[in-house]
Amino acid sequence: MLKGKVAVITGGTRGIGNAIAKKYAENGANLAIIATKDNEKAQAAIEELKKNGTDVKLYLCDIKNADQVTSVSEEILADFGGVDIVVNNAGITRDNLLPGLSIADIDDVIDINLKGTMYVTRSFIRNFIKRKGGNIINISSVVGLMGNKGQANYAASKAGIVGFTKTVAKEYGRKNIRCNAIAPGYIATEMTAQLSEAQTEELKKQLPLARLGKPEDIAELALFLASDRSSYITGEVIKVDGGMYV
């Protein structure tokens, strides 16, 4: 479905980002993976992705740093000759009730989740215009749609991604550039692994499907949105949440 296309994926060495990277590589995409660290886990993830026979390269970048994003985007475009798909997946949480959130807790989450998404997208827009088409997929969250106690900073950052997605879709649709967002619910990743067994069971009770999602559930939708099968879809925010927010 993506044979010969080039995809940039932020946070692509673990969790949802890595599941999307695997699905893209299996479907023929060449990958530029952006991560903050080059460690054993990251290298293992890259080597695993390469087994599909496509070109996979790791780039280190702190996406909340606009200058670094500009630099790494130029490097990616030089290495691959162009980019077809950008997946803004990288994100963090710093949870607490509002009075307990430090300034750093607020700034870090907004800077990485929201501003990082904006910086990365902005850095590839001219490439898309030059190529007369492109595809942007932003990972938001169901929390950005419904709010959640103890996550004011996270919810705000993810709600911002929703507004940003719709704006980019309106600004660049006539240039054949599509922009959509995925809003995951509770997905079994390193982030949710921090919850206790009792907390996890309580969460399941709140879900119509009575289970946490898998990273692959998000990856399947990300593949569809990246492919020509979704060519008339833009500006959408699609929930993958087991019915959490109906």
UniProtKB/TrEMBL annotation:
NADP(+) binds at G11, G12, T13, R14, N89, Y154, A155, A156, S157, K158, I187. The keyword Zinc-finger does not apply. Transmembrane segments: none annotated. InterPro entries: 3oxo_ACP_reduc, KR_dom, NAD(P)-bd_dom_sf, Sc_DH/Rdtase_CS, SDR_fam. One of its GO terms (molecular function) is quinone binding. Pathway: Lipid metabolism; fatty acid biosynthesis. GO terms for biological process: fatty acid biosynthetic process. The keyword Acetylation does not apply. Residues 5-185 form the Ketoreductase domain. It comes from the Bacteria. Gene3D superfamilies: NAD(P)-binding Rossmann-like Domain. SUPFAM superfamilies: NAD(P)-binding Rossmann-fold domains (SSF51735). Keywords: Fatty acid biosynthesis, Fatty acid metabolism, Lipid biosynthesis, Lipid metabolism, NADP, Oxidoreductase. Catalyzes the NADPH-dependent reduction of beta-ketoacyl-ACP substrates to beta-hydroxyacyl-ACP products, the first reductive step in the elongation cycle of fatty acid biosynthesis. Belongs to the short-chain dehydrogenases/reductases (SDR) family. Homotetramer. This is 3-oxoacyl-[acyl-carrier-protein] reductase. It comes from Butyrivibrio hungatei.
